[in-house]
Every structure is written in C-alpha cells, then in structure tokens.
Amino acid sequence: MSEIGVKLLDPRPRRTLLYLPASRASAVAKARTLDCDVVILDLEDAVAPDAKPGARDAAEAALDGGWGHREIAVRVNALGTHWSADDIAMVVRTRPDAVVVPKLGSAAEARAAVAAAGGVPVWGMIETPAGLLDVAAIAATPGITALIAGFADLAADLRLRPDAMRTPLHPAMSAIVVAARAADILAFDGVFVDLRDGDGLAAEARQAAMFGFDGKTIIHPDQIEAVNLSFVPTPAELLYAERLIAAHSVAGGGVTTLDGRMIESLHVAAAQQILAMAGLVSARQQNGLARNRLPHCGAI
C-alpha cells in the first residue's frame, strides 16, 4: 500500500450483530456456531418482564468464553428502569466486549451509562427523537464506542410511514453515521423484521453499506449470510481498488486518472479501507472461522 496508510477503527469485521434472548439456552448454544461477527445477549425487548431476572442469570452464565471469533455484548434494560442497575452490575462483573444501552436520549445519559459500565465499552442505541437530536454529543462522549440505530422505535415516535427504501429515515441514517465518523466510533444499522423477505433484507443491508454503516443488527440466524455478503466488497470493487492504488503509485502520489476519472489521495485512502477490511474477512476464512465466501482478488 502507499504511504497514505489506512485507518481501521478496530481491526475486525462487524458486519452482523445478532440479537438473541439471553433466556433461550438453545439459541445461545446455536449462536456459538454461527457466522455472525457479534452476538448480543438481549435482556431488554426480547425478554418478558417476569423473565428478566432469569435472563440476566443466563447471560452471566453464557459469558464464559467459547465464542471463537465472535464478539459478545449484552443489551441491558434502559437506564432508570426497574432492571437496569442489576443488569449493569452483572456486566461489570462479567466484562463482555460491550454493553448495549438502549434509548440514550442525551449526552448526560451517555455519560451516566459510561460511568455505570465501569470501563466496559458502551454501544449506545439511538432510537428516540431526543437521542437523534443529541446524537453528535452522545457519539463524542468518551467511552461510547459505537452507535446502534433503533429505527423501529424511532419511526413510531416520529409517526413515520417508511417505504421499502426507508425514505423518511434517510436523514436519521445520515445523522447517525456522520456523528459516528466525527467521533471516530462505529455505526450499526437497525434490524429488518420481515423474516420471510430475503430480497428485502439484502436490499436493506446493501443500503446500509451505501449509507456508510459498519454493519447491521439482525434478529435471526437466517439473516446472517445476506448481511455478511452485503458488507463484503465485490470482486469488481476489489479489482478497482487495487488498480486505483497502483495508478496513484505510478503517478508518484499525485493527482492522476483511472478509467477517465480523476483520483487523488482521498480515493486511495478509501481503496485501502476496502482492501484492508476484505483482507481481515479473508484471513478469518483462511483460519476456518467463517463460512461465507469472499472473492479472492490479487493481493487479498
């Protein structure tokens, strides 16, 4: 690669983040074998109120290693609820890779979540109008390392009527990604709830990648493959990235053209990002840790 270099926020793929009820032992066991990048043990929406204490105990038992390449996070109940203090105390004891805190509505709430988490990275959910209005300050809070979109709740609160392209949500999607990039943290898209619509899922995942999200939250193992593939560069994209870097190098690092298009340093940095992430996914495959097929291209 050229002297420009490439910055990855964290050198690992996070294309698929699978929510699963922490109370379902069979789902937890199965998740240890799946090709998702992150497993989120859910104590919130997926668990009925009277089952929450048992789900918390089950999550604690599950945080015992044996997850392979998969990162493990816990979604606690929202701050101020009856269950949140015990949820976060469990997180502090067990030290998962991250704690997902729902319904962050302000930078003050983000600071409270970080303080309570005791050094465990906090992934804050943006799913209310207040949270969206303060998203830049939430993202900039030290200890917040990712934003997760909660578009179902947000759309309901805003009384939106999203179409297949989520048109009314586009401003919110961009705001979340911009806030994450400005703060140098990660951004993850919301879930796709129609388990029967594989084409719709794939289209929405491609849209999320187009908007700049790092990955997408999902709710069923059958959604893993389509979302993984949507966040992997195509063979054509890999080839073009390699050609672009080579053309820039031949030009001595100055402005040049490729296929009639002007290229400069910013285009090289983007190409390096594509190749670097593709290389990480490819390395995982070579280690036998992933099942989806990544096209091989040149130096990858």
Give an overview in words.
The protein has helices spanning 25-31, 52-62, 84-94, 107-117, 129-133, 135-139, 151-158, 170-183, 198-211, 224-230, 235-250, 265-286, and strands at 16-21, 38-42, 71-75, 98-101, 122-126, 144-149, 186-189, 215-218, 256-258, 261-263. Mean pLDDT is 89; it is low at 1-9 and 289-300. With 300 residues, it is an alpha/beta fold. Helix 11 packs across helix 12. Strand 1, helix 1 (25-31) and strand 2 (38-42) form a beta-alpha-beta unit. The radius of gyration is 20 Å and the shape is globular. The strands form two sheets. The chain has an eight-stranded parallel β-barrel with strand order 1-2-3-4-5-6-7-8, surrounded by five helices. The protein has a two-stranded antiparallel sheet with strand order 9-10. The chain contains twelve helices and ten strands. The protein starts with 15 loop residues before the first strand and ends in a 14-residue tail after the last helix.
